[in-house]
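Below is a complete specimen:
___
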Amino acid sequence: MEQIHKRFTDEQVKALLKGYCQGILAIAVIEEVLKIGRSRFFSLLKEYRHDSDSFSIVYQRENPTRRLSASVEKEIKEKLRLEKSLIDNPTLPITTYNYSAVRDRLAKRGIIVALSTIIDRAKNLGCYQAHPRKKAHDREVITTAIGALIQHDASHHRLLTLCPREMGLDYFLR
């Protein structure tokens, strides 16, 4: 959902809060129109009551998003392409990307970049492999006879229990 300052103008929000202060509009109506919760409503109301003339829902971001320079982007691409060439080389036993190694190589050159940034650039360049899906566990029980029990643990040995008559032990049945 978009933020409130992207959906409404200052004047629209001021009109709604003025209507609440005059007793014309209910809280529930304003919350539904603005698509905000009760605590956010009272936060806006407090700001409006403090100074209604300069009230504004527009704000300046405190921490601007960090943009990487073109040279850093170029270095990232170069390192990712190097990694891709290693994977594509059939004589090497490397089959997966190591983004942490790419980050470490960049750090040695004085370029500090988050791992998520490297992975994002790898996806854009086609240097990304999704994690393989795990196979579903097969729970089918296969036996040779009705009533036969087979050991179901990590062992690869089969344990089969037979009745004493089938084992030739008739003297146990007397």
